Amino acid sequence: MKFELPKLPYAFDALEPYIDAKTVEIHYSKHHQTYLNNFQAIVDKYPELDNLTAEKILTNLGSLKIADADWLKLKNMGGGYVNHNIYWSNLGPIKQADQALVEQINTEFGSVQKFKEQFTALATTLFGSGWVWLSKNQEGKLDIYQLPNQDSPYTMGHTPILALDVWEHAYYLKYQNKRADYIDAWWQVVKII
Fold first, then answer.
1. Contacts of 12 by beta carbon, 8 Å cutoff, 6+ apart
2. pLDDT tens digits, residue range 150-181?
3. What is the pTM assigned to this prediction?
4. 99-189 under CATH 2.170.150.70, yes or no
5. Every domain range in the chain assigned CATH 1.10.287.990
6. Which one of 9, 72, 128, 142 counts the least CB within 10 Å of its CB?
């Protein structure tokens, strides 16, 4: 299978003033593209992966018969590719709330505000680089958690819903070391909640 960089459904400057156009451009066309290129290069070495989606590769990572060095690269590069796909798809200049998701958040977390507070606390306190996720576990319940580096919920059998990239490349041009400011701004362009 030949993977592609999903087209952004908005212009680089569409998330202004919250996320600046230069950051979106570099993050998408350089970082995301590099993860895709490196992921594809590893997948191309293993014909048995040809018919699998990127998500299936990550979900089945533990059972794949590939070289140890390639396994780690596949995890990191595949995670970087898929994680960014989710990240960009969650953002937009126009809110399009998923009402079923909002209802489930209200039921399981007490309110959207309480959910946002918990999610923000995890994003603010994540040490180093990584992601904060809202995912559905195998029982269909919502979970919020941090994952380091480019680890993906798919490797745990979870279905990711909302992804916050807290690698510095996601915010450093505009926010420098002010991760909390970036997180607050990010909430302004999350379209699904």
1. 21, 22, 24, 25, 28
2. 999 999 999 999 999 999 999 999 999 999 99
3. 0.96
4. no
5. 21-90
6. 128
